[in-house]
Amino acid sequence: MNASLIRELRDISGAGMMDCKKALEENGNDVKKATEWLREKGIAKAAKKAGRIAAEGLSTVMEDGNKAVIVEINCETDFVAKNEKFQKFVDDVARTILASNAKTNEEALALPYEDGTLNDYVTNMTATIGEKISFRRFALLEKNDNQNFGSYIHMGGKISVLTLLEGASVEVAKDVSMHAAAMRPEFVKKEDVPADRVEHEKKILTEQAIAEGKPADIAQKMVMGRINKFYKEICLEEQEFVKDNSVSVGKYVSNNGGKIIDVVRFEVGEGIEKRQENFAEEVAAQMKGE
Description:
290 residues; GTP Cyclohydrolase I, Chain A, domain 1
């Protein structure tokens, strides 16, 4: 067997030496056919990993002119998230989406990438790295010349925020992103909070006030005050600005001649049930080649 052919195939596919050796043997030392064979084999490997939990990974933000994208891609372990190949993969996906007009995950995964699609790239990366790789979500924003993007990436991509402001400046938009990264707002403004969520909160607060023995009129005033506190906890515009708690975030932006249009915050793995690690089982599975 020609060692240089094995090396060439490894460089192209990222597959292991023995897999490359077998691929070449099965395909008469034709590197192109062997590459396709490995790709097909990778699809089978990726399918085996589809049921695994991928709650680690990276998020990132990328800008180009009047467009910006924020993405989250998951893997199974933090070790892989720190892998340079995985980091390049995340950047490649972000760059591909940024150059498109994709609106849904399905549209994004169907985008052309090299000789296949972005979905093929995800599948091949699963086979190459040996963990389930999951393209979770993205948001693609566009601005006009009177608007500004501001982004912030925290802990190497564990949290990413993309902010779009009308007016103000890039620096102000970045300040908003940094605040959102730290304070985890659920909504941008009060009007974004679903009515049933507000009513549910009012009901709980009213019951609390009555349980405290307050008269109905006093209880009503207490509920309104506590609802405002509720908004300050979950709405970005109402939160005290982390750099200056004498003003709200909304006031900080308006004081600088701006208005918040959109804020997208991705925290890697949020809402995904993390798997319970069992090191012995993990090692056993790896030894079996699972």
